Amino acid sequence: MPQFSVSPDGSWIQETGLPFEMNESDNYALEEALQIREQMGDSEVVIVSLGPDRCQKVIREALAKGADRAIHIKEDSPYETDPYSIATALANTIKDEKFELVLSGLQSDDLGFGQTGVILGEILGMTTATLVVGTEIQDGKIKVKRELESGWFQWQTMDLPASLAIQSGLNQPRYPSLKGIMGAKKKEIKESSFAEMCDIDGLQAFNGLSVQRAEKQTEMIEGTVDQVVNKLVDVFKNEIRIN
Amino acid sequence: MDILVVLEDKNGNIHRMSQEAITGAQQIGSEFNLSVGILAMGSNAAALSEQAAQYDVEEVLTLENEHLNHYTADGYGAAVAQVVTNENPKYVFFGYTYQVRDYVPRVSAKLKRPFLNDAVSYSTEGGNPVFSKQVLNAKLVTALQPSDGGPILISFQSAAFSSENIQSGSANARTISVDIDAAVIKTVTEDPFQEEAGGVDLSSAELIVSIGRGIGKEENIPLAQELAKVMGAELASSRPVVDSGWLAPHHQIGSSGQTVAPKLYLALGISGAIQHVVGMKGSKNIVVVNKDPDAPLFELADYGVVGDVLEIIPKLTEALK
User: Fold this and answer.
1) Which of helix, strand or coil describes residue B40?
2) Shortest CB distance from B102 goes to which of A131, A152, A240?
3) What SS3 state is found at B93?
4) Second-level CATH architecture of B202-320
5) Best mutation target, B148, B186, B201, to test chain A (most A CBs within 10 A)
6) B243:A168 CB<8 A
7) Best of A168, A204, A206, A239 to mutate (most B CBs within 10 Å, chain B)
8) Which residues in B lie closer than 8 A to residue A85 (C-beta atoms)?
9) Fewer CB within 10 Å, N or C, chain B?
10) For the domain that residue A155 is a member of, what is the CATH number?
11) According to the CATH classification, is domain B3-184 in 3.40.50.720?
């Protein structure tokens, strides 16, 4: 695994050599969308993704899993780090499509704001819910199960259109089939640019990135597996004193 | 007031995370000479106000409205946006609870003012506080630069401030109101419920063996179960293990699971996302094994091993028998 490091100007990370994959909770959101379409019948699942050229790989993966078409909002470095600007670009992109449901991952693993789906819903006048761990389509409405803290949950019934931020774990994301992978090559990916889709000043920005400061003095145990195991046993018995 | 703290109701009491936000407001208020107000709203607003009035702040605002008796993002988003517009504080503080995650982005969008979420600490620059947040799965930290021109919304991660440091005192009381159109409420919420808890109360466990994504696959779970058995420890996990269906939800440690503070927390293949860390950072001894030397959980470790948990677990089990 390559070492993880900040780029020389401190604005982002060194991406060279890093593998990229679909954001975890987005994968669950996609699966939920595909399952809802399967229940509803006459509907389509459209992928919208904002990011650099490399995003086409995960867009193709989503199409291979069964999404019908896609829109790629191309973004060049430096990447946008303001959730309001990101949501604005997404809202401008989809506002004429009149989607009844927007599903997004709860948060991104990189920026971790967890705001985009909610702001997008607010901009487009939709109802919103986050931490969604279950959905039931009803007549003209959607009922969602929301996760609260410490093992508590809550059902809420919302008017459509709705924007749902999906928590990971609510379903079992499928893998693309060979047929799906072949079929995805023919599906449409419409392209636009972030500059065209976001016409506002941002509300916040990153001011430099740095490595987390250690909170503790960590004693690193090194050596062969046997040496490491012997040292761990010694630590457990003589330092931490487990019985 | 300069800093407004919005309280969250926890069954008629002030949510622990809101108490931490009050503590933060008091500390930042005294350091930067900013006055602090507290907002209590919802069906338990009166009870919350009474509790808040025992803290050393300038004033406590009480807001009751029939559309706020049950939480909805529609109603709470509209109400807080109005209060912030009317009071025009420099900062609005929240605890980073699941409810705050659900509605405060809507307040941000309504007001077109930044919501700096999940702040872990602050520093001083040019006489003002600067707030920092963890990014890239907690591997890095960044300072957040809000735009000028009005109130800044900020939520704090659990334990950014210790509520043990909250200052008692007195506060003026003021009743306020907002105007919420019934047509705004397009959501009906039902009462919260708990799914069968099952299993053990991990919060009283002395020793915990906890596994993460690094365990690789479901077939490897028995390796960890046997290690836990040999050690007399309880088995726990991070969220991905539960999401994958490899362990039942009651094993999960973190913001959506249990909070623990054992004598030994042995973390095997857990990277250390903040949602996990908040559930175990109080552990007395933390031992971390992970093949990624950049795993953020090493920052909390007393002892660390960079290595493959699948090689180490069986040998450790054998050695402890």
Assistant:
1) strand
2) A131
3) strand
4) 3-Layer(aba) Sandwich (3.40)
5) B186
6) yes
7) A204
8) none
9) C
10) 3.40.50.620
11) no
Number of domains into which chain A is organized:
1
Ordered by start, the domain boundaries in chain B are: 3-184, 202-320
CA triple A208-A22-A40, angle to 5 deg: 130
Judge whether A238 lies within some domain: no
Per-residue pLDDT tens over the stretch B218-252: 999 999 999 999 999 999 999 999 999 999 888 99
Rg of chain A, C-alpha, whole Å: 22
pTM: 0.87
Give residue B40's identity as a one-letter amino acid code.
A
Tell me the two tokens of residue A79.
């990447």
Q: Which residues contact residue A108 at a Cβ distance below 8 angstroms, ignoring those fewer than 6 apart?
A: A23, A116
Given a cut of 70, the residues of chain A with pLDDT beneath it are 1-3, 213-215
Query: Do the Cβ atoms of A128 and A144 come closer than 8 Å?
Result: no
Residue ranges, chain B, pLDDT below 50 = none
Distance from CA of A63 to the nearest CA of B (A): 23
Nearest CA in chain A to B15: A149
Q: In chain B, which residues have their Cβ closer than 8 Å to the Cβ of A147? A: 98, 256
What residue ranges in chain A does DSSP mark as E strands? 46-51, 69-74, 101-105, 127-138, 141-147, 152-159, 162-166, 189-193, 204-211, 219-220
